[in-house]
Batch of 2 targets.
Target 1
Amino acid sequence: MKKYKVPLHKKIKYTLHKYTPRRLLLRLKQWNASRWQYRLFKKYPTLFKQTSLGKHESCMYWGIETGAGWSKLIDDMSNELSHKFPHAEYAQIKEKFGILRVYIDNVSADQRDKLNSIIERYEVLSSETCEVCGLKATRTQNDIGWISVTCNKCK
Ligand SMILES: [Zn+2]
């Protein structure tokens, strides 16, 4: 599944007069696609603090690099993490080989094991959740070797 990178939050500026109708439509589509992310950024301001950094400072500049189907999973994970690690910040959230990958900053070395066991649990859940719609699915590999988790409807 090909994903376009939305430079999100800081990039969406409504200088409408600059847009041709086609470009405006594309912009609105991107905006719509990233709305679930903004909701999470607002709900967990500390965890998503790095979304306000520049592209050379944090990968979170690009927002959450997964499909919207995993939004509930990421919401649940953020809820759990924000309670157990109040200072933690996401450094990157992406999909790799059909699995959710999460990197976190600002957690002390002695808390890493506890943190990793929580993240692992959500990584396992992601491997059986359709990245597009959030329904139950299995990891599959397409003809060109791309591994993804999508249900039959979203393939
Ligand atoms: Zn699906």
Target 2
Amino acid sequence: MTGSEAVAACGLQKPACVLLDYRLPDIDGLQLLPYFIAAYIPVIILTGEESPSVIVLAMQLGAQDYLVKGQLSQVALEHAITNAIEKVAMRRDIEQKNQQLRDLASALTLAEQRERRRISQVLHDHVQQLLYGIQMRAHLITLDTEDQRAIQEHVEALELLTQDAIRMARNLTVELSPPILHNEGLAAAFRWLANHMADTYSLTVVVDAETDYHSPSEDLQVLLFQPVRELLFNVVKHAGVSEAEVALHEDENQVVIQVTDHGCGFDPARLQETGPGGGFGLYSVRERLALFGGQLSIETQPGAGVRATIAVPKCLNFD
Ligand SMILES: Nc1ncnc2c1ncn2[C@@H]1O[C@H](COP(=O)(O)OP(=O)(O)O)[C@@H](O)[C@H]1O
Ligand SMILES: [Mg+2]
């Protein structure tokens, strides 16, 4: 077979392995190597006895193995082919894992940036406005020192503004990292979250906790808490109902959390589309959990609500 015939044949059907003679009628066999390597096709170079330099060069260029034509045996050939196929499969696996890690790193960076933008917006639009209001009222008091009634009004307004500022700052603190999460178990944290969702978004959350799991690892507590917040927030944003349920249980090996609503649901095929380009919440929850050996599964149909199940192994290695 000539070099160009070989390339054309590979285009039609990808071979499991290529035995490449380094001297082909139309081309130097080594020139075809980059093509096969890029296509993850294992290559074994066939050479004559006289050409050790060709072997070295071929191996440097990425060939998996070599065989000397005069010494071919069935066993050696089979062995070389099996090995070459395995090596390429491993290389492909590693490259894919690296790519996944790169995707995840950039997805997490994006998620972090988005969160920072949101926090800075809350600080700017709300907290700063309230503080300016307080500053202005305080200034007005110094101008109205004669008028008792005006002073009284300013003081009342000051109290309201201060209350709002405290509430806003408290919300922000707890949303970022609720202190209860670090001092108590998950059940307490979910009950706290339920109150928070009711106060802030009028969402009633029923917490059904068989256990009050408290991980010795603060990271695991956070890892289990944040997705629940995201899932409940999805109920607020998308489900069109004002109730949801959070169930918590554990067995010997894993902690399992289910977040259920009876809202509008959605077509599960859409889960395939979501990624850094589409809906970001579920994607980043899934990726973050996967990074620590956990899983997110979603059962849903249009009109049939959503049940999201998070399962995370208890012994995690966060090194
Ligand atoms: N509880 C839910 N009820 C109905 N639809 C939902 C629910 N959760 C998610 N979805 C749908 O799945 C999509 C992806 O969700 P998500 O990844 O969290 O992205 P985002 O919330 O930013 O839109 C949402 O846009 C919505 O259409
Ligand atoms: Mg979301």
